[in-house]
Amino acid sequence: MLSLTSNSNATLHSTGLKIGGISIHRGPSRSFKLKIETNLDADGNCAALDAQREREASGLWNDPVVLGQRIPREEVQLDQLVGRGAFGEVYSGRFRGDKVAVKKLLAETRETDGRVDGFLAEVRISATLRHPNIVRFIGVAWTSAADLCVVQEFMEGGDLRSLLDRYEVESRAIGFDREKTRVAMQICSALAYMHSLSPPVIHSNLKSSNVLLNGALEAKVANFGTSPKRTLKTKTESKSRTLWMAPEVVRGEMHGTDADMFSFGVVLSELDMHSAPYTQARQQIRDSSWRPLQDADILQKVTKGSLRVVFSESGPMALAELGRACVSVNPLKRPTASEALHRLRTIFADELA
């Protein structure tokens, strides 16, 4: 005896069963007819595949800069997952015998054209950047949107935020020393280079977890994500807000390279104190329900100028002064990247020799 059970994907009729595009019909003589419905068009082409081909043939998929950086997907080998974010994953891998980092969009993210285009926009900008303190871009590979990936140099030292977390666990002395000041100079050198381009490149997503380290603890800026812009002024989506963002960015206003300098000031505070931004405020200030401050509460106070990151009294005071200048609420009071780099080099030579 044949038993037919209906579910969300099947419709049971008095004369037969339909599952998706497959129909089984019972005839008058108790015979069954099988009918398979597909989404093929009159020419026998799959509409879904055609839609993807159309998408891939338009916009950034067909950009000459992106195409010029394309490498064979079959030569990119994925090994181990080393990181995961809101929109993508990073794997260690191999490309032509070299160890590399491979960035991929999450499956659910690949369904959004905006995210794919943003991913390719990062490729377009990263391919043009050449600096010793920016993670080296190797290429982009795909056979379809499903396996789109960016290949870049592998940074075996991990990210700066993880290093500072270890410093906290190990109770390392706070304050700026030569090692941490050198890291600050390397980050600032990358920003000075990006901001000197015409038009300038605005990172818009600088934070300690987006600063990667090699085995010698040399710092390189990475993970531009979908945010970098080659423009004098830009806007950042509100849903992308982080504790490193400048007040004008949080408010959704147009901003320029000075927004990166605010983020750099927050990173300087992390290098100094080792803790994540606004950790002390989160512990000391409570909301009306006596709960620790949430990120939204912190950002609201930052935009009003009533809350700032803190600096220690250890190490050169000139470094703390530079950090405070960078996190000025007024963008016009922040130093440029080239000015900050000059100050860092002077402090390094005069006070940390």
Brief summary:
This protein is of the alpha+beta class and 353 residues long.
SSE layout:
Elements: E1 10-13, E2 16-19, E3 22-26, E4 32-36, H1 47-56, H2 64-68, E5 76-84, E6 88-95, E7 98-105, H3 107-110, H4 113-126, E8 137-141, E9 149-153, H5 160-169, H6 178-196, E10 201-202, E11 211-213, E12 219-221, E13 229-230, H7 247-250, H8 257-273, H9 279-284, H10 295-304, H11 317-326, H12 337-351
Antiparallel strand pairs: 1-2, 2-3, 3-4, 5-6, 6-7, 7-9, 8-9, 10-13, 11-12
Tell me what the structure shows:
With 353 residues, the protein is an alpha+beta fold. The protein has 3 domains: 37 residues, no CATH class; 107 residues, 2-Layer Sandwich (Phosphorylase Kinase, domain 1); 192 residues, Orthogonal Bundle (Transferase(Phosphotransferase), domain 1), CATH 1.10.510. The chain contains 12 helices and 13 strands. Strands 5-6-7-9-8 form a 5-stranded antiparallel sheet. Helix 8 runs antiparallel to helix 11. The longest helix is centred in the middle third of the chain and has 19 residues. The N terminus is likely disordered.
Rg, rounded, reads: 26 Å
**H/I helix tally:** 12
First-last Cα distance: 89 Å
How are the strands of the biggest sheet laid out side by side? Answer: 5-6-7-9-8
* Average pLDDT taken over every residue: 83
Write the CATH homologous superfamily of the largest domain: Transferase(Phosphotransferase) domain 1
CATH architecture of the largest domain: Orthogonal Bundle
- In helices, the fraction of residues equals 25-40%
Order of helices and strands: EEEEHHEEEHHEEHHEEEEHHHHHH
Quaternary state reads single chain
Tally the beta strands.
13
Based on Cα principal axes, name the global outline.
Answer: globular
* Domain tally: 3
The largest β sheet comes out as: 5 strands, antiparallel
- CATH fold description of the largest domain: Transferase(Phosphotransferase), domain 1
User: What percent strand?
Assistant: 15-25%
Which structural class do you get from the secondary structure elements? Answer: alpha+beta
Poorly predicted runs of 5 or more residues: 1-15, 40-45, 47-51
